[in-house]
DNA sequence: AAATAGTCCAACCGCTATCGG
DNA sequence: TCCGATAGCGGTTGGACTATT
């Protein structure tokens, strides 16, 4: 069992002070990102490197978009989650200015609950047999569809393939745009078939049509 | 006004992947 | 090839805040 990286005596934990934030910002502005452990020491922060990295990535980075998620962002998260599962970093990578932590929190606190209310299982995007809430009459009969899309957790190649495919798609479309149509145009691609299948039948996607 | 419940989100923890010696 | 250090990721927690009773 490896030692935890943050068990040093004298290492700060908990909420960051404004002074600590400023030290980290100043240091990264001057020297750029690099080895987080050395950044922490060089910036005079009594924090572990991990903590510095997290603080920078999730809060201090200048390109972070803060505030509520737009409807199109929410739709994109749902689509990507149906495709990629809990790969928050990959999903966040498709949402400019959003972090994996933010997407994960938003999923757990908003979207998940919303889907449950609609009678959709947020884990596999399938309709539950006994939906909760009044909106369930809009959805189609349950079909085992989204699960076909999910790549098994051990099949990392499949996931990364899907992700890289998505990346190519967006690059072609322009990085700043939220390309909500994630259909894939390569003939004979198994992913395309999955996507098309999903388009036809995934209840979570039907809700946004 | 106080107590309690619910919600949100920043931060931590533990694990795996990757890299360099 | 092996091993240790580090980065990165996803799950979880805890505290602050808000709503409800």
From TrEMBL:
GO terms for cellular component: nucleus. It comes from the Eukaryota. InterPro entries: Homeodomain-like_sf (IPR009057), Myb_dom (IPR017930), Myb_TF_plants (IPR015495), SANT/Myb (IPR001005). CDD domains: SANT. GO terms for molecular function: transcription cis-regulatory region binding. Keywords: DNA-binding, Nucleus, Repeat, Transcription, Transcription regulation. Residues 8-60, 61-115 form the HTH myb-type domain. This is Transcription repressor MYB6.
């Amino acid at each position: 069992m490896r030692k935890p990286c943050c068990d040093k005596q004298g290492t700060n934990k908990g909420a960051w002070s404004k002074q600590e934030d400023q030290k980290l910002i100043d240091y990264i502005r001057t020297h750029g990102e690099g080895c987080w452990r050395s950044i922490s020491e060089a910036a005079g922060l009594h924090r572990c490197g991990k903590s510095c990295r997290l603080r920078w990535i999730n809060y201090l980075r200048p390109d972070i978009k803060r505030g509520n998620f737009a409807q199109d962002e929410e739709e994109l998260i749902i689509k990507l989650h149906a495709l990629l599962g809990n790969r928050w970093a990959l999903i966040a990578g498709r949402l400019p200015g959003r972090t994996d932590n933010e997407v994960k929190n938003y999923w757990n606190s908003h979207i998940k609950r919303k889907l449950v209310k609609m009678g959709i299982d947020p884990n596999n995007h399938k309709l539950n047999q006994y939906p909760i809430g009044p909106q369930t009459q809009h959805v189609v009969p349950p079909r085992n569809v989204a699960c076909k899309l999910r790549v098994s957790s051990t099949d990392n190649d499949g996931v990364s393939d899907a992700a890289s495919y998505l990346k190519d798609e967006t690059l072609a479309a322009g990085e700043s745009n939220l390309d909500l149509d994630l259909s894939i145009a390569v003939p004979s691609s198994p992913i395309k078939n999955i996507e098309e299948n999903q388009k036809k039948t995934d209840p979570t996607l039907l809700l946004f049509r």
